[in-house]
Design a protein that fits this description.
Elements lengths: L11 E2 L5 H4 L3 E12 L4 E10 L1 E6 L2 E6 L8 E7 L7 E12 L16 E10 L4 E4 L7 E4 L3 E4 L10 E5 L18 E2 L1 E2 L14 E3 L6 E5 L3 E5 L6 H10 L3 E3 L4 E22 L4 E7 L2 E2 L21 E2 L3 E5 L8 E3 L5 E11 L5 E12 L7 E4 L2 H16 L17 H14 L4 H12 L20 H18 L2 H20 L40 H20 L3 H22 L19 H9 L5 H13 L8 H13 L11 H8 L23 H9 L2 E3 L7 E3 L8 E6 L6 E7 L3 E7 L6 E4 L5 E4 L5 E6 L1
Parallel strand pairs: 6-15, 12-23, 29-33
Antiparallel strand pairs: 1-14, 2-7, 2-10, 3-6, 3-8, 4-5, 4-7, 8-9, 10-13, 11-12, 16-26, 17-19, 18-26, 19-24, 19-25, 19-26, 20-23, 20-25, 21-22, 27-30, 28-29, 30-31, 31-32, 32-35, 33-34
Organism: Paenibacillus terrae
InterPro entries: 6-hairpin_glycosidase_sf (IPR008928), 6hp_glycosidase-like_sf (IPR012341), Bac_rhamnosid6H (IPR035396), Bac_rhamnosid_C (IPR035398), Bac_rhamnosid_N (IPR013737), Galactose-bd-like_sf (IPR008979)
Protein name: Alpha-L-rhamnosidase
Length: about 775
C-alpha cells in the first residue's frame, strides 16, 4: 500500500556515483545529518529504507538494520522510535548503505533496482507534540563513497556476495557521532520522479510486516585449538571470558580457532589498538571436515568437532589494521555470518597489536518458543533441541534453506518450516510474509518461482504446489477467510498451468527443459541433481500425483471461501488424474507399485508416498503399498526433505509405528556432534537446513497428537501415537491457546490428559481407534483399559 507521507522526504544518493561503482559486486556509501535540539524530552519516529541495505545509527548507536527483504513491487521500510537515543545539543543521524549492483550477483536474496538510494522520513516533536525538527532525506544530508571495503562473491558463500576485504586506514572512524569533520563530504543528490500519471517509482514503499531481527551480545564458549607458540590458550580464554586485553608481539603470526558451542548466526565484533598494518583474517565455518570433494558442493564430513583430523573450510574476511593508539579501532562485517567455529589469523608488522574485544551479536527472527516436548526416550529430547535450533537459524527476514550458503527461501523447505513454527510458537507473521512473497513471484506462465525473494529467477515446477499446501495449512491453523481469498487467483493460476500440461493420457507431461524438475536428494539421482532418472524417458509420475494432491487441498480452500463450484471442479480433476496414473503408471509385475514414469519400470519411495497422499490409493490398498515400499531396499529412499511426506503417508495408512526406526539418520547426526541438522547425505554441504527439523512436527502433531480438526482450530483433534514410548508430555502452540498433552501407558491401561482452550471442542482418538468427543478441550482425562 502506498503511503501518503512518501513525498515529504526524497530518495537520495551520492552525486559522484559512476558505472564503475555499478560494476562491483557491491559498494558502500556513508550518509549523515547533524542537527541540534534544546532540552527534551523529545519524541521522534522515523521511517527508513534503502537500496539495497542499510544500517542506521543515531549518535553512534545502531537503531535499525534493513530494509526487510522484498522485491521490485514491495519495497519495505522500517518504522523506528529513536526518542531514547536523542540528547540535548548536537545530534547525528547516519546510515551506512550497501548497494548491490544489478549487473552482478551479490546477495541473491536481496533485491536491487536500477537506482541506488536512501530514504528517511523523520519528525521530532516536543513533549507537547509540536514539531521541532525534520530529519527527511534531502540536500541537507551529506554523503561519502567508501573506498576501504571490497566485497566479493566468495567461493563457499557464492550466493551471498558478502565476503569483505577492508583497509582500516581508509575507514572514516567515528563518522556517525558528533564532532566528526565531514568537510570533504558531498551534499546528497535527491531523485525527482514524475508520478502524476501512474508511473511508479523504483521503490513501492510498504511497511515492514515482521519484527526487527534480534541482536544479542554473545561470547565464544571455548578455544578449540591454538596453532602457534606466541599466545597461549589461557590468554585467548582470558580475552573471550574476562575481556583481558591480548597483546600479540610485532612481527608475529598467530592462529586460533574459537568455538561458539553450537552453530549460530551473528555479527562478529572486534576491538583493537595499535598494530598498524596488521592483517587479520577471519574464517567462519560450520564444522571441522575433510578436504572437500568439490567446493562448495560435495563434502566429506564425520565428527563435526574433530579438530585433530579435520580442518575448517570457508571464505576469509580480511581486515588490515589502521593502528590507532589513543582509542579503540573496531571492525564488524556488515552482514551477519554463520558459524560454530571461527578461525582468526593475525599477522603483525612493526607494531604489536592489542585485542580488547572478540565476540559477536547473535541475530535472527525473534521467535518466542512456547511449545515443548519430553518423553521416556532421552534421545527424543536431543532431537527436539537440535530441531528447534535448526528452525531458529533458518529464520531471519524470510525463512531460509540454510543460513551459511544461500539464505534463500525455497517453497519446499518453507512449507515444512512454517508448520514447525506454528507448533512451537503460534507465530504466523513470517508465514504470512512468505505467502505474499511467493504470490509476488508468480510468472506469466502460471508457476511461482521456487525461491523468493531472489534476484536470480529459478523455477522448480513442483515447488509451486508446495505453496498451495502452505495456504491450506494456514487455513486449518488460523481460519483466515480473507487471506484465502487474497491468494485464490494465484492458486488457480498454478493449477491451470498444470492442467495445460496434461498430455493425451491425462498425465502431467514432461516439464520444459529450462525448469529444474527437482524432487529429492538421493544417491541414485545425484548425477541428475535430484531429478528422477526416468526423466530421460518422459514425464514424471510424481508430478501428476503432486498435482492431484494440490487439487484436493485447493478444493477444501475453495469450499472454505464459498466457491463450491470451483471445489467440485478441482475434485473432479483430481479424480481424473488419479485414474490416469493407475491406468498408465502402475506396475503389474512389481507388487502394484507405481512407476516413476509411465511405461518405465523404475520405482522410488517418493512416487509411492505421493500415490498415498494424493489418494490415488486408499485404505488397505494404501497400507499394503507403504509396507511394500518400506520393505524394498533397492529403490531410492526419502531424504530429510521428503521424510516429512513419508511420515504423513505412514500416518495416513496407520503405519506410524514404523517411524521410530526411520530416525536413524538423525541419530547418526547426534553421534557426529551436529548442533543443527544437515542438508542431505548426498552432498553433505550444509550443516543447517530447515527441512530437517521434522521432529518439531512429529513430536507435537503425532506423538502428542495435537492437530486442527476444522479450519482455524475450530475444534482440536488429539490422537497420540504411542510409538515405542511408555510416556510423553508437552505443550503445543495454537491460535486458540496452548494445548498441553500428557500420556503414559502401562501393562493394563493407557492414560491421557489434555488441557486446552476451554471454548474449543476436542476429539480424542485413542490408540485402539476408539473416538471420544468433548465439548471443551480443558481438563480432559481418559483412561483406556488395555
Amino acid at each position: 500500500m502506498l503511503v501518503n507521507w512518501e513525498e515529504e522526504a526524497k530518495w537520495i544518493w551520492t552525486p559522484d556515483w559512476t558505472m564503475d561503482d555499478e560494476n562491483k559486486v557491491g559498494s558502500f556509501i556513508y550518509f549523515q545529518k547533524t542537527f541540534n535540539l534544546e532540552n527534551g524530552p523529545h519524541q521522534a519516529e522515523i521511517k527508513v529504507s534503502a537500496d539495497s541495505r542499510y544500517r542506521l545509527f543515531v549518535n553512534g548507536v545502531s537503531v535499525s538494520f534493513g530494509p526487510c527483504k522484498g522485491d521490485r513491487f514491495t519495497w519495505y521500510y522500517e518504522t523506528v522510535d529513536i526518542s531514547s537515543f536523542l540528547r540535548a545539543g548536537e545530534n547525528v543521524i547516519a546510515a551506512q548503505v550497501l548497494r548491490y549492483s544489478p549487473m552482478q550477483d551479490g546477495n541473491e536474496s536481496v533485491w536491487r533496482t536500477r537506482l541506488a538510494g536512501l530514504y528517511v522520513h523523520g519528525i521530532i516533536r516536543d513533549s507537547a507534540g509540536h514539531m521541532v525538527n525534520q530529519l527527511h532525506t534531502d540536500e541537507s544530508w551529506h554523503c561519502m563513497k567508501d573506498t576501504a571495503i571490497s566485497l566479493s562473491q566468495g567461493i563457499y558463500t557464492v550466493f551471498l556476495g558478502i565476503t569483505e576485504e577492508v583497509d582500516g586506514l581508509k575507514l572514516p572512524f567515528e563518522w556517525n557521532v558528533s564532532g566528526y569533520d565531514d568537510g570533504g563530504w558531498l551534499p546528497a543528490s535527491p531523485y525527482r520522479f514524475d508520478t502524476l500519471h501512474g508511473a511508479l517509482k523504483p521503490w513501492v514503499l510498504t511497511e515492514r510486516a515482521i519484527p526487527l531481527m534480534k541482536e544479542e551480545n554473545q561470547r565464544f564458549s571455548n578455544v578449540q585449538r591454538v596453532m602457534d607458540s606466541e599466545v597461549s590458550s589461557d590468554a585467548w580464554l582470558d580475552l573471550l571470558y574476562r575481556d583481558v586485553p591480548l597483546t600479540i608481539p610485532a612481527h608475529s603470526r598467530v592462529i586460533a580457532e574459537l568455538d561458539a558451542g553450537e552453530l549460530t548466526t551473528g555479527f562478529l565484533q572486534l576491538a583493537m589498538s595499535q598494530g598498524a598494518e596488521t592483517k587479520i583474517s577471519l574464517l567462519c565455518a560450520e564444522c571441522y571436515e575433510q578436504e572437500p570433494k568439490l567446493v562448495p558442493w560435495m563434502r566429506e564430513k564425520g565428527d563435526r568437532t574433530d579438530s585433530e583430523t579435520g580442518s575448517l573450510c570457508g571464505d576469509y574476511d580480511i581486515y588490515r589494521v589502521a593502528g590507532m593508539r589513543d582509542k579503540f579501532e573496531t571492525y564488524e562485517p556488515f552482514w551477519f555470518r554463520t558459524f560454530r567455529y571461527v578461525r582468526i589469523e593475525i599477522e603483525t608488522k612493526g607494531q604489536p597489536l592489542t585485542l580488547h574485544q572478540l565476540d559477536y551479536r547473535e541475530t535472527g527472527y525473534p521467535l518466542e518458543v512456547i511449545g515443548h516436548f519430553n518423553s521416556s526416550d532421552d534421545l527424543y529430547s536431543k532431537l527436539w533441541d537440535i530441531s528447534l535450533r535448526t528452525l531458529q537459524l533458518c529464520m531471519h527476514e524470510s525463512y531460509e534453506d540454510c543460513p551459511y550458503y544461500e539464505q534463500l527461501q525455497y517453497a519446499m523447505d518453507t512449507r515444512s518450516q512454517i508448520l514447525f513454527t506454528y507448533n512451537v510458537s503460534g507465530d504466523d507473521r513470517l508465514a504470512r510474509k512468505t505467502f505474499y512473497d511467493f504470490h509476488s513471484s508468480l510468472l506469466p506462465q502460471g508457476l511461482t518461482q521456487s525461491r523468493y525473494p531472489s534476484y536470480a529467477p529459478q523455477v522448480i515446477p513442483g515447488f509451486s504446489l508446495y505453496w498451495i499446501h502452505m495456504l491450506h495449512d494456514h487455513m486449518m491453523y488460523y481460519g483466515d477467510v480473507q487471506l484465502m481469498k487474497r491468494y485464490r487467483s494465484s492458486v488457480d493460476a498454478v493449477l491451470d498451468y498444470y492442467d495445460r500440461m496434461l498430455d493425451e493420457r491425462g498425465l502431467v507431461g514432461a516439464m520444459p527443459s529450462q525448469y529444474w524438475s527437482f524432487i529429492d536428494w538421493t544417491d541414485e539421482w545425484k548425477e541428475s541433481f535430484g531429478v528422477p532418472t526416468v526423466s530421460h524417458h518422459g514425464p514424471l509420475t510424481i508430478h501428476s500425483l503432486m498435482y492431484a494432491a494440490a487439487l484436493r487441498k485447493a478444493a477444501e480452500m475453495a469450499v472454505f471461501v464459498g466457491r463450491e463450484g470451483v471445489a467440485s471442479e478441482y475434485r473432479e480433476r483430481a479424480e481424473r488424474i488419479c485414474t490416469a496414473v493407475v491406468a498408465n503408471c502402475r506396475s503389474i509385475g512389481n507388487s502394484g507399485m507405481f512407476t516413476d514414469g509411465p511405461g518405465v519400470e523404475l520405482f522410488s519411495q517418493q512416487t509411492q508416498i505421493w500415490a498415498v497422499l494424493s489418494e490415488t490409493v486408499k485404505g488397505e490398498e494404501a497400507k499394503q503399498l507403504m509396507e511394500i515400499t518400506l520393505a524394498n531396499d533397492s529403490i531410492p529412499k526419502s531424504s530429510f526433505a521428503m521424510s516429512f511426506y513419508l511420515f504423513r503417508a505412514l500416518a495416513a495408512t496407520n503405519l506410524y509405528d514404523r517411524v521410530h526406526s526411520l530416525w536413524e539418520p538423525w541419530r547418526k547426526m547426534v553421534d557426529q556432534n551436529l548442533t543443527t541438522w544437515m542438508e542431505d547425505t548426498v552432498s553433505q554441504r550444509s550443516d543447517c537446513h530447515g527441512w530437517g527439523a521434522v521432529p518439531l512436527y512429529e513430536f507435537t502433531s503425532e506423538i502428542l497428537g495435537v492437530q486442527p480438526e476444522t479450519p482455524g482450530y475450530g475444534s482440536i483433534r488429539v490422537r497420540p501415537r504411542v510409538d515405542h514410548l511408555t510416556w510423553a508430555k508437552g505443550q503445543v502452540a495454537t491460535p486458540k491457546g496452548q494445548v498441553k498433552v500428557e500420556w503414559h501407558r502401562s501393562e493394563g491401561e493407557f492414560i491421557v490428559r489434555v488441557d486446552g482452550p476451554e471454548q474449543t471442542p476436542l476429539t480424542l482418538i485413542l490408540p485402539d481407534g476408539n473416538i471420544q468427543h468433548f465439548k471443551s478441550a480443558a481438563s480432559v482425562q481418559y483412561i483406556l483399559k488395555l
